[in-house]
Amino acid sequence: MSPIFKTGRLNRLIGTTLLGLCGALTASHANAQAQAYPNKPIKFVVPYSAGTTTDVIARLYAQKLGEILGQSVVVDNKAGAGGNISAESVARSAPDGYTLTFSTSATHATNPALYGKIPFDPIKDFTHITLMVAAPNMLVINPKIPANNMAELIAYAKANPGKLTYMSAGSGTSPHMAGELLKTMTGIDIQHVPYKQVTQGLTDLLAGEIAMSFYHVPVIYPHVKSGRLKAMGVATSERSPIAPEVPPIGDTVKGYDIRPWWGLAGPAGMPQDIVDKLEKATMQFLKDPDMQKRLVDIGVIVTPMNQKDFNAFMATELVKWTKLVKDSGAKVN
Question: Which CATH number is 137-251's, of 3.20.20.70, 1.10.10.10, 3.40.190.10, 3.40.30.10?
Answer without folding.
Answer: 3.40.190.10
